[in-house]
Amino acid sequence: MVTKKIGIIGCGNMGGAILYGALESGVLPKENAYVYDINPAMMEKAKKWGATLASDDEDVCRNADIVLLAVKPQNASEALEMCKEALDNKALMSIVAGVTTERLRNMIHGAPRILRIMPNTPAMVYEGAFALCSDNDFTEEELSDAKSIYETIGVVEMIPEHLIDAVCGLSGGGPAYAAMFIEALSDGGVKQGLPRAVAYRLAAQTCLGTAKMILETGIHPGELKDMVTSPGGTTIEGCEALERGGMRAAVIDCVNVASEKSRKL
């Protein structure tokens, strides 16, 4: 259990997912969570979950030991300006895409310790993927607390900051790409006569189960594919169609362009 007080600036989709997961899992006691969001609806949501509502960004920083910055990239400078000197000598976790540690320091009054993080939205159902920058200046205890929060709602990988844009392109946007594949798979089922609801459930469960097999058994994705593709069977016909459509190249290009966009933010 995290004993330090955690403050959250921005309680939208991602900040809210992290807060909700940490509170519901019990790793973060409700009395240790402080939240501020400019949107009253988000504040009401945080209050319903049991968090303490702060009056502004500065109030969050003054009450918390570790602060999570969870705002949109274009709002980061304004949010940090509102913190004034209250972040000095505090620990700051940032999930702001494309904003480097160096840029964050230039926006802040004072000298906090900074840990950049790239999350994704499946944290809302305790299945998130989190990349934490290994080149951070958190204390050992602060880093342990940060890991504890994210490990309760997903998988944690430590990576150097120069690779975080690649993580943004892969797992940051990955839920959208996976959802598109599930939708397309379902469309194929519907074309073949399956009811839409049945097609969605079968497609989503198939992707969930496949991912679980890879994570829990350590099986190589190629080996798993080979297990399913019988000689002269139906699945190899489908694989050939995906190859003709350029699926692999399209997915690789997808991660490349998303990563480049992150670098340009």
Q: Brief description of this entry?
A:
The protein has 265 residues and is an alpha/beta fold. Helices cover 54% and strands 14% of the residues.
Count the strands? 8
Tally of helical segments = 12
Outline the low-pLDDT stretches. Answer: none
Name the overall outline. elongated
Cα end-to-end separation: 35 Å
Give an overview in words.
The chain has 265 residues and is of the alpha/beta class. The chain is built from twelve helices and eight strands. An eight-stranded mixed beta sheet has the order 3-2-1-4-5-6-7-8, sandwiched between helices. Helix 1 links the parallel strand 1 and strand 2. Helix 1 runs parallel beside helix 2, helix 3 packs across helix 4 and helix 7 crosses helix 12. The longest helix has 22 residues. The protein is elongated, with a radius of gyration of 21 Å. The mean pLDDT is 96.
